[in-house]
Amino acid sequence: MTNKRSQAAPVFSAPHFLVATILTLLLTALGSLPATGQRAVQIDYDRGSDGQYTFNAISTFAAPHVVVLEFTTLTNLNPSRRMPLVTNISGRRTRLLTLNPIVERQRSRFNYTYRYYPGCLNATPDDIEYLLPFEESAVASAGFANYVYRRIGAEEPDGWYSPIFYVEDGTTIHASRKGTVISVQDVGMESNPERHYSSERNYIRVVHDDCTVARYSVFKNNEIFVEPGDIVFPGDPLGIVAGEDIGFGNQVRFLLYHLNDESVIPDENGDTDSNRWRYVQPKFRTAAGERVSLESGEEYKSIHPQEIVTEEMSRRERRRWNRQN
Fold first, then answer.
1. pLDDT number for residue 37
2. Buried b vs exposed e over 278-305: b needs ≥16 C-beta within 10 Å?
3. Cα–Cα distance between 228 and 63 in angstroms, integer?
4. DSSP assignment string, 244-302
5. Under a CB-based contact definition with an 8 Å cutoff, are residues 47 and 53 in contact?
6. In 3-state terms, what secondary structure has residue 1?
7. Fewer C-beta within 10 Å: the chain N or C terminus?
8. pLDDT higher than threshold 50 for residue 200
9. Measured between alpha carbons, how far is residue 77 from residues 4, 28, 80, 103 in Å?
10. What's the mean per-residue pLDDT of the chain?
11. Handedness of CA 53, 59, 64, 70 (dihedral sign)
12. CA 269, CA 161: separation in Å to the nearest integer?
């Protein structure tokens, strides 16, 4: 993900991901692979005069992520933390560890790989109400998406939950909760009702303060209003639904999930869980009631009450919102 060279440690490598497999399509849609050219997290290091190396994680969007750092080569250097390192980062710059020389004036060498995921370890989703992800006063019927990778024999993850809202052509998709946009995919979809894979659809991902991630789709080509790094609030417009000329086009698809720690932290045998994510069933505010659990085939009217819109705002953000409204 970066390449850097120094005299003391002449080579290191970062992971390269293949995109030809369905598994990687899923990772691109939900996880660590960036959907835009800008990486959310990069690793750099500084070399001290005493031969010590200090590693830092640089977060492009100052949003919570989990970093997994491993050394594939480590000669004459001792890491200050247990390896592989699996740790939370937040803010723009997070110190990860140091490599200390074992024998002074002897050549040192290292190679490393890293990967990252949105969210954090030990995520505990907040008990919070979500807005319906479409414009206020609009009405949509609800349904639920099947786990697409069952088509190739993959087992559906525990707790899989992905609501769909069937909307009118030209509907604007709105944010359900405050968060930071961490990726945007706008792939120039063509009219093709047989497009099955979620990574082939236009979407955005937003990470929240409780380390859950919301994925919104399907957007019309060139009609996404936000960029990575933007902070969105409940009710903010995100883009226009894809439309009837695209397969699944008049659907707002919503997915809420957080990292499964067991998928990135090896057990005592070095094994990890194959299910990367844990899925969350949010409660929604509707015109008819509070904390509503969706039912397939039922219609729901969107409402954007002030107490939901401002719930997670800072004092400064709330004052600004009050002035504008």
1. 53
2. bbbebebbbeeeeebebeeeeebebbbb
3. 11
4. TTSTTTTEEEEEEEEE-GGGTS--TTS---S--EEE---EEEETTEEEEPP-TT-EEE-
5. yes
6. coil
7. C
8. yes
9. 18, 34, 10, 8
10. 85
11. negative
12. 31
CA 214, 220, 221, 222 dihedral sign is negative
Q: Average pLDDT of 57-80? A: 94
pLDDT band at 16 (very low <50, low <70, confident <90, very high): very low
Average pLDDT of the segment spanning 227-247: 92
User: By percentage, how much of the chain surpasses pLDDT 70?
Assistant: 83
The closest of 242, 121, 131, 223 to 179, measured between CA atoms, is 131
Asked if residues 302 and 132 have their Cβ atoms less than 8 Å apart, the reply is yes
Q: Is the pLDDT of residue 227 over 50?
A: yes
Helix (H) or strand (E) run with residue 72 in it? strand 65-75
Q: What are the CB-based long-range contacts (under 8 Å, 24+) for 268-276?
A: 275/157, 275/158, 276/27, 276/30, 276/31, 276/117
- For the entire predicted model, the pTM comes to 0.84
Confidence of residue 167 (pLDDT cuts 50, 70, 90): very high
For residue 223, give both structure tokens. Answer: 């009609």
Q: What's the residue count for the chain?
A: 325
Token output for 52: 């010590």
How many Å apart are CA 229 and CA 218, to the nearest integer? 20
